[in-house]
Amino acid sequence: AQSVTQPDIHITVSEGASLELRCNYSYGATPYLFWYVQSPGQGLQLLLKYFSGDTLVQGIKGFEAEFKRSQSSFNLRKPSVHWSDAAEYFCAVVPGGSQGNLIFGKGTKLSVKP
Amino acid sequence: KAGVTQTPRYLIKTRGQQVTLSCSPISGHRSVSWYQQTPGQGLQFLFEYFSETQRNKGNFPGRFSGRQFSNSRSEMNVSTLELGDSALYLCASGNGDLETQYFGPGTRLLVL
After folding, report:
1. Could you say which of A58, B30, B45, B83 would form a disulfide bridge with B58 (CB–CB 3.0 to 4.6 Å)?
2. Smallest Cα–Cα separation from A44: which of B68, B63, B105?
3. Which residues of B touch A99 (CB under 8 A)?
4. Cβ–Cβ under 8 Å, residues B60 and B76
């Protein structure tokens, strides 16, 4: 069965430090990959997506992610974290041929120290 | 364009009751998906509607149902509520084959 693993439940970084959130997926075919962010009490906002092509994708708010097929990974990065980045981050996969069905990881909660 | 709207935003019900949640997608979007978010299970897919037809369904009991109207607005219904149905219910709209889903703010349901 398809699955998405986010190994880190909670990460704390200092403001201005770099960030990498890990995501691994288990899926045989070429996946569609997404990163979403959820602030407390809010819905999900799309940060970036990967369908095909260049394996390094740029998103909003200065985030980027790199697709590595050999490692089945799609890690999210940001060179310098801002206090407003504190939120929960979800990696998600759309199984091939199923347009509406996002499979989410359990999420990583990011705290930012001043 | 206005975003995805969900009503009501908060809801308190008691066990055994039923509830109907509403979702209005972004104008022009024809796909609406529903997700349940709980601390224990995380985000789980309920069902997806496209042009008034259920196109996809997650692994939830038959107490969970939905429908989509000709204007793409969607409703989901939960009958015979259980305590475990307490959750944030998120709706997302999309359009196109390689679609990206845009989420609403959610309806927080508390079952007492």
Report:
1. B45
2. B105
3. 31, 48, 50, 55-56, 94, 97, 99
4. no
Q: Taking an 8 Å Cβ-Cβ cutoff, which residues of chain B contact chain A?
A: 4, 31, 33, 35, 42-45, 48, 50, 55-56, 58, 90, 92, 94, 97-106
**What pLDDT score was predicted for residue A96?**
66
Say how far apart CA A46 and CA A79 lie, in whole Å: 19
Encode A84-112: b = buried (16+ Cβ within 10 Å), e = exposed. ebbbbbbbbbbbeeebbbbbbbbbbebeb
Alpha-carbon gap, residue B47 to B59, rounded angstroms: 9
* 8 Å CB contact of A46 and B100: yes
Q: What secondary structure letter does DSSP report for A69?
A: G
> B56-84: per-residue pLDDT in tens?
899 999 999 999 999 999 999 999 999 99
Q: How far is CA B68 from CA A100, B7, B40, B53, B104, in A?
A: 14, 15, 29, 7, 16
- The predicted-structure confidence for A52-77, as pLDDT tens digits, reads as follows 888 999 999 999 999 999 999 999 99
pLDDT at A3: 86
